[in-house]
Amino acid sequence: MLFRSENGTNHWRLSGIEITANSNYPNGCPTNGKQCFSYFLIGPNSNNYKTPPLPDSLTVDRCYVHGSPTQDILSAMSAQASNLAFVDSYISDIHAAGFDSSGISVYYSPGPVKITNNYISASTENIILGGGGGPNNPWVPSDIQIQYNYLFKPLSWVAASLTAKTMTVKNAFEVKSAQRVLFDSNIIENVWAQAQAGEAIVLTVRS
Question: Which helix (H) or strand (E) segment is 159 a member of?
Fold first, then answer.
């Protein structure tokens, strides 16, 4: 990943930055021949992000976070921290061949989280809350504000998802575990049946 938040990282604001990658990393695992990667443009330390203290007070402000048509990117922002904000930013071309790929994912976090006035384009879920971190995840993401966002999937992705299988499409907004969530004044454009039935918003209950 390009920005990694180590345990205890706190009070950082990324402002006015373009964040991207220059290659489609990777195509497979040399040990078992299967596709595997943990590629996030912004994300936690993948080895010990569950070790306290959590990263805290992280803001992404007016940033351009993107992939390209030929890149595999699992998540633009895998944000496992407390006191998070994503504001006034542009997230695009987030997709991966054969894997779920999200614009913003928050699961190992007590909250609060603010996601406002962003353009977010990702193949599987544009925004997803909860559902990760394993059985020892102590957190329920709480006090979530999601307003004035444009959640978009381009129709040019339809053929790629249905025929070439180069991306997995599910929904625009999914909540697997969260509480006190405000989802207001957002625009959702283009969701179709592929890996799920094609609902724009999916609410479930799980760890």
Answer: helix 157-159
Q: Residue 123 has what DSSP assignment?
A: S
The DSSP 8-state label assigned to residue 44 in this structure reads E
Backbone phi and psi for residue 120, each to the nearest 5 degrees, phi listed first: -135, 120
Phi, psi dihedrals of residue 151, rounded to the nearest 5°: -100, 115
Question: How far apart (Å, rounded) are the C-alpha atoms in residues 66 and 77?
Answer: 10
Dihedral, 81, 204, 174, 47 alpha carbons, nearest 10: 30
Residue 50 has pLDDT above 50, yes or no: yes
Lay out the sheet containing 75-78: strands in order across.
3-5, 40-44, 75-78, 102-106, 125-129, 171-175, 201-203
Residue pair 182/144 in contact (Cβ under 8 Å)? The answer is yes
pLDDT digits over 126-145, tens only? 999 998 877 778 889 999 99
